[in-house]
From TrEMBL:
<dbReference type="GO" id="GO:0009809">
    <property type="term" value="P:lignin biosynthetic process"/>
</dbReference>
<keyword id="KW-0862">Zinc</keyword>
<dbReference type="InterPro" id="IPR047109">
    <property type="entry name" value="CAD-like"/>
</dbReference>
<dbReference type="GO" id="GO:0045551">
    <property type="term" value="F:cinnamyl-alcohol dehydrogenase activity"/>
</dbReference>
<dbReference type="InterPro" id="IPR011032">
    <property type="entry name" value="GroES-like_sf"/>
</dbReference>
<comment type="function">
    <text>Oxidizes mannitol to mannose. Provides the initial step by which translocated mannitol is committed to central metabolism and, by regulating mannitol pool size, is important in regulating salt tolerance at the cellular level.</text>
</comment>
<dbReference type="Pfam" id="PF08240">
    <property type="entry name" value="ADH_N"/>
</dbReference>
<protein>
    <recommendedName>
        <fullName>Enoyl reductase (ER) domain-containing protein</fullName>
    </recommendedName>
</protein>
<keyword id="KW-0479">Metal-binding</keyword>
<keyword id="KW-0560">Oxidoreductase</keyword>
<dbReference type="InterPro" id="IPR013154">
    <property type="entry name" value="ADH-like_N"/>
</dbReference>
<feature type="domain" description="Enoyl reductase (ER)">
    <location>
        <begin position="23"/>
        <end position="351"/>
    </location>
</feature>
<dbReference type="Pfam" id="PF00107">
    <property type="entry name" value="ADH_zinc_N"/>
</dbReference>
<comment type="pathway">
    <text>Aromatic compound metabolism; phenylpropanoid biosynthesis.</text>
</comment>
<dbReference type="GO" id="GO:0046029">
    <property type="term" value="F:mannitol dehydrogenase activity"/>
</dbReference>
<keyword id="KW-0521">NADP</keyword>
<dbReference type="GO" id="GO:0008270">
    <property type="term" value="F:zinc ion binding"/>
</dbReference>
Length: 361
């Protein structure tokens, strides 16, 4: 038997954890490692709630380690730095996203794609280099290697920036990698949730024409008037979809439920790109002829490397891009997760860790 979570490391920590597949979170005492020579320790002020937290606390992907402290949209203020840390100092505003470690020597790591490292260490429910389990940001303190910490520019609100560390980089990276960031291009965004709403904001800031594609006609005014999309398609309306066939350079598909791809591929111009960033639990059907007729591409993308994540945060600060959030106290987290399962949030819950996560004896 290993040590109890609160005795593994010297720094006392407190958070909210799920203990089993019910996914119900409750107060949890554990510990963080001492600040190593390349580590940054920070007081967590806010943590976003991501849809993947929901899957993980219930072990829906089959890789959860309990007890699990979720949260990978973590921001706060530095309280201590190691002797060899060069990028950060006490008092800096910082963030940690989906990963806290990688091998740093493979082909992917060599080109700043730590997110595709075969040995990537996720921010929670993974084994760290020292063999202990990683715990996420639904907690009062965080310790991370400086390589996996991003700087949050002064004047940027911490609460509305937190979700960018997962949702933001998840859509920013494919817009850049697949070349869908050129002014005047026409890009579709499928789904107007936590990912979709920031995809619209980033694409517009890049000078791209944006069409939101949704099953919900009720989201049209929100998409166009509030988020700045240029147009809106109801995916169930065959006339609307038919009229838009062959008009888009690319599509960012954020939907994590099973859905047909063929109508989306039909919206693409020749050599257009459909990029999946959502992760449906069952395989999607991909009709080959729809790709052959027009040399079209279906691709994927998962978050981004650390260099690009910092670039994304800096771009967001420059263009005033923030997530639309509902700030909640820590003890509301189970209700928030229930609401998230029903898509009852516009568009990201963020836990006010600094003011509401109080340790209980």
């Amino acid at each position: 038997m290993g040590q109890a979570p609160e005795q593994e490391h010297p720094k006392n920590a407190f958070g909210w954890a799920a203990k089993d597949t019910s996914g119900v979170l409750s107060p949890f005492h554990f510990s963080r490692r001492a600040t190593g020579e390349k580590d940054v320790t920070f007081k967590v002020t806010h943590c976003g709630i991501c849809h993947s937290d929901l899957h993980m606390i219930k072990n829906e992907w089959g890789n959860t380690i309990y007890p699990i402290v979720p949260g990978h949209e973590i921001v706060g203020v530095v309280t201590e730095v190691g002797s060899k840390v060069s990028k950060f100092k006490v008092g800096d505003k910082v963030g940690v996203g989906c990963m806290v470690g990688s091998c740093r020597s493979c082909d992917s790591c060599a080109i700043d794609l730590e997110n595709y490292c075969p040995k990537v260490i996720m921010t929670y429910a993974n084994k760290y280099h020292d063999g202990t389990i990683t715990y996420g940001g639904y907690s009062d303190i965080m310790v991370a290697d400086e390589h996996f910490v991003v700087r949050i520019p002064e004047g940027t609100p911490l609460d509305a920036t937190a979700p960018l560390l997962c949702a933001g980089i998840t859509v920013y990276s494919p817009l850049r990698f697949y070349g869908l960031d050129k002014p005047g291009m026409h890009v579709g965004v499928v789904g107007l949730g936590g990912l979709g709403h920031v995809a619209v904001k980033f694409a517009k800031a890049m000078g791209v024409k944006v069409t939101v594609i949704s099953t919900s006609p009720s989201k049209k005014s929100e998409a166009i008037e509030r988020l700045g999309a240029d147009s809106f398609l109801v995916s169930r309306d065959q006339d609307e979809m038919q009229a838009a066939m062959g008009t888009m350079d690319g599509i960012i598909d954020t939907v994590s439920a099973v859905h047909p791809l063929m109508p989306l591929i039909g919206l693409l111009k020749s050599q257009g790109k459909l990029v999946l960033v959502g992760a449906p639990e069952k395989p999607l059907e991909l009709p080959a002829f729809s790709l052959l007729m027009g040399e079209k591409i279906v691709g994927g993308s998962m978050i981004g490397g650390m260099k690009e994540t910092q670039e994304m945060i800096d771009f967001a600060a420059k263009h005033n891009i923030r997530a639309d959030i509902e700030v909640i106290p820590a003890d509301y987290v189970n209700t928030a997760l229930e609401r998230l399962a029903k898509a009852d949030v516009r568009y990201r819950f963020v836990i006010d860790v600094a003011n509401t996560m109080k340790s209980t004896p």
